[in-house]
Amino acid sequence: MASESDGTTVAFVCVQNAGRSQMAAAFARREVRERGLDSEIELVTGGTRPADHVHEEVVEAMRDVGIEIGERTPRAVTFEELSGSDYVVTMGCSAEDVCPAGWGGENRDWGLDDPDGKSPEEVAAIREEIGARVDDLFDELESSR
Questions:
Q1: Alpha helices (H) in 1-145, listed in sequence order
Q2: Residue 54 to residue 70: CA distance in whole angstroms
Q3: What is the predicted pLDDT for the residue at 106?
Q4: CA–CA dist 90, 78 (Å, integer)
Q5: How many domains does the chain have?
Q6: How far is Cα 31 from Cα 110, in angstroms, rounded to an integer?
C-alpha cells in the first residue's frame, strides 16, 4: 500500500466488482506492465458487495481486445485498502456504503454505465471509455513523478 512504500496505490472500486472495475483493473495492469511501472504502482480492485463471477459480456468484450479476465474472481475491497490508496476510482455505481471520508487519497468517480446485460456494442463502448480513462490516468501519474 501507499503507506508502506514510496509507490502509488490506485484502487478501482464498484459494488459487484464484476464489470467496470474489473475492466479498469485489467487495463491498469497492462499499463503498469507496458510502462515498466511494476515497482512504482500497486493496483487494488474490489467491490462493496462482490458478485460470484465477472459478467460474461465483460469477459467477452475484454477478449476482443486481447485481455483475458475470465479467471478473475470479484472480491470485497477492505477499508484498509481504500484508506491506504492514493487514488480511489469508483465507476459510477452506488458505492454509498463505503464512506469516502475515510479514504486516504483522492476520490474520482468515472460515472460509467453498468455493462451487465448490455449488448456487445454497448459493452464495447463502455470498455473503450474505460481504456481511455485508464490511459489518461496513467499519463497523469507518470507526469507527476
A1: 20-34, 56-63, 79-83, 120-143
A2: 7
A3: 86
A4: 14
A5: 1
A6: 18
pTM above 0.85, yes or no: yes
Residues 85 and 1: beta-carbon distance below 8 Å:
yes
Query: For the domain that residue 99 is a member of, what is the CATH number?
Result: 3.40.50.2300
Lowest pLDDT segment from 57-61, 94-98, 103-107: 94-98
Q: Is-contact 47 76, C-beta < 8 A?
A: yes
How far apart (Å, rounded) are the C-alpha atoms in residues 79 and 25? 18
Of 18, 21, 22, give the one whose Cα is nearest residue 53: 18
Q: Which residues pair with 8 in a beta bridge?
A: 41
Beta bridge partners of 42: 9
Q: Using the predicted structure, report yes or no on whether residue 93 has a pLDDT greater than 80.
A: no
CB 51 within 8 A of CB 30: no
Query: Does residue 30 sit within a domain?
Result: yes
C-alpha cell read off for 14? 464498484
Cα 72 to Cα 52: distance, rounded to the nearest angstrom = 10
Cα–Cα distance measured from residue 5 to residue 9, given in angstroms and rounded to the nearest whole number = 10
